[in-house]
Amino acid sequence: MRGAWPSGRLSVMRVTVLGASGRTGIHVVRLLRGRGHQVRAGLRSRRRAEQVAGLGAETVVADVTADADDLVEALAGSEVVISAIGAPDPDQASVDLVDRDGVMTAIRAAEKAGVSRFVQLSAQFADSPDQGDRLVRSILMAKQISDSVLRRSSLNWTIVRPGTLTDDQPTGHVKIAGHLEPGRVSRADVAAVLVATLEEPLAENQGFDVIGGEIPIPSALASLG
Ligand SMILES: NC(=O)c1ccc[n+]([C@@H]2O[C@H](COP(=O)([O-])OP(=O)(O)OC[C@H]3O[C@@H](n4cnc5c(N)ncnc54)[C@H](OP(=O)(O)O)[C@@H]3O)[C@@H](O)[C@H]2O)c1
What is the pLDDT of residues 171-196, one digit of tens each? Predict the structure, then answer.
């Protein structure tokens, strides 16, 4: 699929969003639908289906800590997976189960299901946890491992590492680079970056930081290389 969506020309894609009921995931679903993509909203549990009701997305149960074969089935037919998953609790066991092992299971399931592209919502300093905030170091270490599994996978990958997330209104403007100073960025803008990576070939097989900034998202992504 590499190079299948040149800049500026929109191809409709079949995309599964993992963690679709989350505060970032729901923005991702909405934005993908707005771009005309076919969206499957992956839910940890059917109980969260009301979160995505009315957005025009198919729903599927996709618990990354449950049966791996079920996950392969949930991802089958998708060209792209965007993972916006995050552990429900910050304790080490939960983070290791979801952000490390669960995301690794999702990556393997995506490979088995014939998915081409995997876009991972990681975190700033996940590639250097010892430089990150001590309070979130266990999350950073878990993501460091799953991010490296994704980089070494057979998938076409993108790893987006945002700073501290806020629920501020979207601005459509960010700052993106391989590594940036610590910062904050809204979940809505991060979701827009995740979705925009699908239209920017330079974002393929790349990991980068994103914080709030002044550069329109497509231009910020186009500066990668
Ligand atoms: N908070 C920050 O400042 C910050 C900074 C940088 C990066 N991040 C990362 O950004 C990501 C998204 O953050 P957020 O605040 O949008 O998260 P969130 O609102 O807590 O949403 C997390 C999503 O993950 C789902 N989930 C949890 N366990 C799952 C499992 N076993 N299988 C499938 N789905 C599962 C949740 O499902 P339910 O709705 O069923 O619970 C929910 O949809 C996280 O990975 C987080 O670590 C956060």
Answer: 999 999 999 999 999 999 999 999 99
